[in-house]
Design a protein that fits this description.
By secondary structure, the chain is mostly helical. The protein has a domain of 32 residues. The chain is 49% helix and 0% strand. The protein contains 4 helices and no strands. The longest helix has 16 residues. The chain is flat, with a radius of gyration of 20 Å. It starts with a helix and ends with a helix. The N terminus is likely disordered.
Amino acid sequence: MLVKAAAAGTTLQDTPADACLSGRRYTWNMAVPILPPPGFDELSADEKLDYIQGLWEHFSVHPEEVPTPNWHREIVAERLAAHRRGEVSSRPWPEVREELLARLHAAR
């Protein structure tokens, strides 16, 4: 359905799949990218992760340009409200990070 909309040069706001991106100025009048990019499947797992990290670093140069869907904001608001009501527990980030790094090192 989005491919038909793209071919017609319509904006995302003209398509039903736009629920998360309403109000943004994105259009589908550019070529639809081939996913995964050519040669990606031939990369090793480490190379694939490096590629993905590079993409993220490219986007993160201007974080204000990376769209955040409304449903992401809703989930964060719900979880923060639950935390403030004492319905969920939390741990300090350094503690969680240390545990995750220990698991990662143990798995290697």
